[in-house]
Amino acid sequence: MNNLVEVVKHAFEGQVNLHERRKGIWQLILPVFHEDGDMIDIYVRVSPDSGNLIRITDLGLSLMRLSYNFEINTPPREKIFETLLIQNAVMEHEGELYLDSAPELLFQSVMQFVGLVQKVCNMRLWQRDTVKSLFYEDLEVFVFDKLSMFQPRQNVVPLPDYPVLEVDYVLEAKNKPFFLYGVGSQDRAKTAAIALLEFQKASLAFMGVIVYESMESMPKKAATYLTKNADKQFTSLDDFRSSGVQTLSRLAA
Amino acid sequence: MLNDREIKELIACPKSIERSEPKHGMQTDGRFNRRSMELKSADQKHSFTMFIRQSTELIEDFSIGLVYKSLDKEKGSVNLIRFNGSHGEVDWSKDGHYSAFHIHRVSESLLNQGNREPKEIELTHRYSTLESALAEFFKEIKLENWQAYFPELKQMTLLGVAGESHE
To answer: Does A137 share its domain with A114?
Structure first.
C-alpha cells in the first residue's frame, strides 16, 4: 500500500461526534467500546474549577458499570484503584472520574481518559483470574460484614507459647469459639490442619471451621487431613456465603 | 461451560429473592443508585445475584442484571442477562443499541470463546423506564416473590403503568 498515510488519515477523519446530553454537558461519541459492546461513557463540560479548562468526565458511570460484578471494598483493591488514577492523572470525586484538560491538549487527554476507564472497568476480570489473594480479601469482608454477631477477631494466637500458630478468625459462640481458616492452597491446608491438631493436643475448647476457596481443587490428601481435624467445612466461599451464617448460628446455640 | 439450553433454563427457572440490600428502595453510592439481591431457584439447586443500578444524573441510564453463581469453579459466575436503559442518543454501534433501550444476553458461543460478557444485544420496546424494565425483568426471570420487595412496583402493575405481573 503506497498511500498508507493518506488511508490512515482518512480513516480517522470525522470519527468523533458530540451530543448535548444535559444542558452544558456534552457526550463524546467515540468508537471505543467495552467488552460487552457498549460504548465507553465520556462527557465534556467547562471545568467548574477553571473556565479555561475542559473537564473530561464519566459522570460516575464507570464505577457504576464496575459494580455489576466487582466492588472496590478492600484496602488492596482501593490501592490498585488509586494507583490507576495516579498513573493516568485522573481525579475521582464521589465516584465521578474526571480529568481537566487545556483545550490544546484535549485529544491527548481524552485518549488518556479512555485508557483509564478501560483499566478501571477491567478490574473485575481479576476476580475470576488467578489472583488468589482476592479469596482471602473476600472472606475477610464477609466475616466482618456478615458475621459481626460472633464478634470476629483476626489473626489470633490462642497459645501464647506457640505464636507461630495463628487462627485466621476467632468467632465467639455460647459454649466454645469457632476457629476459622480460609484455605486457598495446599500449603494453607497443611498449616490449618497442623494448627487444629496442636490446639486439640493443648485441650483448647473450640470448633474448627474451614472455608475452602475450592475444595474440589484441593489435593485429596490435604483435604482428607483437614476433614479429619476440622468440625465443619465449607466447600467454597459461595457455599460459606449462602449457608455460613445459618450453620454457625445453629452450631453456636 | 454452560450451553444455550442451560442458559435459557437458568434464566427461566422459577426463583425467589432470599436477601436484598437494601431491603426496599435503592441506596446511593457515589453517582449512582444501587440495589443487590441474592436469589435462589425454586428447586434450591441454583444461586444467583441480581443487581439494579441507575445513574443519579442520567436516570435513563440504568442496568438490571442476573448473574448465575455456579459452585463449579470452571463455570464460575456468569452474567446471563441484562436489561439496559439508554446510554445516549447518538452512537457508533452498528445496531444503534447504545442510544436505545436494549437487552444483553450471554450465549454458549461467547462462553466457548472465553468471553463472559453478555455481548448478544437486542433492541427492545418492552420497557421505557426503570420501573417498567423491572416488571419485564421479573417476568423474564420468573421471580416469584418480588411483590414483597417492590411494593411500589406492585402498585404500578395493578394500575397497568409498569406492565403486567407474570402471575
So the answer is: no
